[in-house]
Amino acid sequence: MWTEEKPVLRIQKLRKQYGPGCALCGDGGQGNLQDNFCPECRTVYACRDVSLALYPGEILGIVGESGSGKSTLLRCLYFDEEVSGGACYLQSYKEGRSNIFLESSQQKRYIRNHFLGMVYQNPYLGLRMDFSSVANIAEKLIAAGERTVGSIRIRATELLEKVNIPLYRSGEAPRHFSGGMQQRVQIAKALSNNPPLLLLDEVTTGLDLSVQANVLDLIKRLQRELKISMLVVSHDLSVIRMLADRTIVMLKGKIVEEGLTDQILEDPQHPYTQQLVQSLL
Ligand SMILES: Nc1ncnc2c1ncn2[C@@H]1O[C@H](COP(=O)(O)OP(=O)(O)OP(=O)(O)O)[C@@H](O)[C@H]1O
């Protein structure tokens, strides 16, 4: 279905290590490790040669246990972390010809403000809790170059309406909102610059089941309406099952399996994926 189109995002051999590495763990963690950890120099190899492509309008799920490197991958893509190696290309930036990891910090800011949206598990990372919801969205719009106060206000209220935040609460600070509402404001903020790519990191973890279902429905609806491509990270296969067209399974910093979500659920190949699928039954 997606193979004839150019990918919105291509990642090649992304590596992220915390620590210097040593002779024992070898180049990029190819040597002796305990899981993703070198007992000699205490380096953690959080992402090891992760490669993937994301196609227009696709939701790609990334599932894996705690510590498998999912969040690190998203943080690297959003430039919250410096990568240790690898390349990443965005079709909307220089027609996918430039490795964005090698761009200057000014260009990285530009890419982040114009082409990326991020929703964190912890809303405190994505929102200014004491600003009003409208001001939170305005901040991102201004960063993306919008200067007209009237247009900013209209766009912000339009977005908050889209994520079901009642108009009469749009002047309130997210600090006074429930967890589900905070996530919806984060989503509105992340969408404000019309990014071709939205990154979602465990967005429903910690929410009540009914609130979780509500946020997942919202993400699905927005994807259908806006045709935006999404990378969705979760440790919970039921979340991935609900959202993702295709799924990547990560374990100890590496991709161990990938395929259509239905295919992975029906016929998991890797023992870890089999275990994950089993736990759903
Ligand atoms: N700043 C850091 N310094 C050292 N190690 C880190 C740092 N951040 C993450 N790690 C390590 O990198 C590995 C991957 O962490 P990451 O948060 O990406 O995992 P995850 O799959 O998202 O799990 P979780 O959902 O629990 O956060 C873990 O072993 C973690 O301890």
Automatic annotation (TrEMBL):
PROSITE patterns linked to this entry: ABC_TRANSPORTER_1, ABC_TRANSPORTER_2
UniProt KW keywords: ATP-binding, Nucleotide-binding
BP-aspect Gene Ontology terms: organic phosphonate catabolic process
Protein name: ATP-binding cassette domain-containing protein
Pfam families to which the protein is assigned, alphabetical: ABC_tran (PF00005)
Domain (ABC transporter) ranges: 9-277
Keyword Nucleotide-binding applies: yes
Membrane-crossing segments per the record: none
GO molecular function: ATP binding; ATP hydrolysis activity
